[in-house]
Amino acid sequence: MAHAIPQDAPSHVSDIFHPTPRDRLMNAATRLFCKYGINATGIDAIVDEAGTAKTTLYKIFGSKNDLVEAVLESEGKIWRGWFIASIERAKTPRAKIDSIFPALKKWFSEDDYYGCVFINAVGEHPKDETRLRAITMEHKSFVLAHVEQLARAAGAAKPAFLAHQIGILMDGAIVAAMVTRDPTVADTAGKAAAALLDEACGQSAKKPRRRRIQPSSRLGKESLSVA
Amino acid sequence: MAHAIPQDAPSHVSDIFHPTPRDRLMNAATRLFCKYGINATGIDAIVDEAGTAKTTLYKIFGSKNDLVEAVLESEGKIWRGWFIASIERAKTPRAKIDSIFPALKKWFSEDDYYGCVFINAVGEHPKDETRLRAITMEHKSFVLAHVEQLARAAGAAKPAFLAHQIGILMDGAIVAAMVTRDPTVADTAGKAAAALLDEACGQSAKKPRRRRIQPSSRLGKESLSVA
DNA sequence: CCGGGTGGATACCGACCGTTCTGTTGCTTT
DNA sequence: AAAGCAACAGAACGGTCGGTATCCACCCGG
Fold first, then answer.
1. pTM of the complete model
2. Nearest Cβ partner for B196 among A119, A181, A192
3. A 161-200 near B (Cβ less than 8 A)
4. Close Cβ partners of B53 (under 8 Å, ≥ 6 residues apart)
5. Domains in chain B, ordered, with CATH?
6. Nearest partner of A181 among B137, B131, B172, judged by Cα
7. pLDDT in tens, A43-60
């Protein structure tokens, strides 16, 4: 997942006026990697867009590979920050999970939505590559851990299992949105996630008006250390 | 989705003994594109592996782009053939849908599973590209149409909607399996699909069959031309 | 005033890219 | 035997790749 919503997290305030060469390179590389792919983006295009010299890039990052890793690392952190902030605006754990796919939909709707850099990066590199996949899995694990914690707080029977399923839905929606350019895949995936969440919480009806069994699972909202 | 199971569909029998240069080029290109990515695979490597001359490649395909499209077209057809044959072995529509993810799991378990060429191709090319995305969507639509028909035959309330959800689960599983190299994501996705199918068929144990108005949609199992 | 470090400009490196070219096999078909 | 033709080998094209070296213009603390 990649390319965070711009509005929040201006990182360093001074960057707005005097962005360092490093930041300019990171921004340019991020944009070009996302839009055109990593292999299809040359060093020259990056330094061109960043307005720096090639020497500066190699002084700072050492190699294109290291630049790629730096971009993924940074982009992952920004994306996770945006994602978690987006869903944590909701009040209850259930509402937070329910706002995952509306958040994704907003992301999909941006005109510069290019899919998930991590997924695309793994896809366009040799499949015996290790480093990129490790970085991607780390990113994924972080997001899934958060979802799992929410699932547990929401009273899901098997929180890890449910989080895994939601993660698959997220990946699928991200990919489908990239291919089709249709943000409404998020709605479809969101309804699937809601149904799975309903089932995992033991109440199959969408609106909890007609509660069938409802034994416990009402508590647990508290005492949840975020990790 | 890409890279079909080898055992069925030997295409032309004579190819086993005298594979034409075209077939050798297609096979080599397919393998290298899948394993190393399209942009990372040079013409030299393809003709090297195919054992043909560069001239032959350009006489037959005209350009690398055209070769890429030919590979996607062919690989898509092979994959769809394998996929549909795999799930159609089951007897009932419900069983056919239930065998989607076991089939994918077998695919994921191959040691030369490299994800979906279509998804990877879109991901590593400029996002304003049109042709690749069109080819990918065509492939996807074909598969989804088949799933939708099965969903309708299985008595799902909203077959197109369910098929769409299953498609997202498939894409998510394909991507997750590529990144994690863990074929069991197919199990997780499969259980999600089964739960959604249960719910869509109204026999989800607890769901009290809250039908809306929609009186029809019960027939239509027949007269469904797939492609 | 000086000296050192940061970063820009530019030319260059060997390697490889996709593509085209020339020329040569070897098997058909006449 | 002659001609045709698909496929071969291989060199070479202009261009770009990732990466390096050189030189120069600042800027800033002493």
1. 0.83
2. A192
3. 161, 164-165, 167-173, 175-176, 178-181, 185, 188-189, 191-192, 195-196, 199
4. B47
5. 17-62 (1.10.10.60), 72-205+220-227 (1.10.357.10)
6. B137
7. 999 999 998 989 999 999
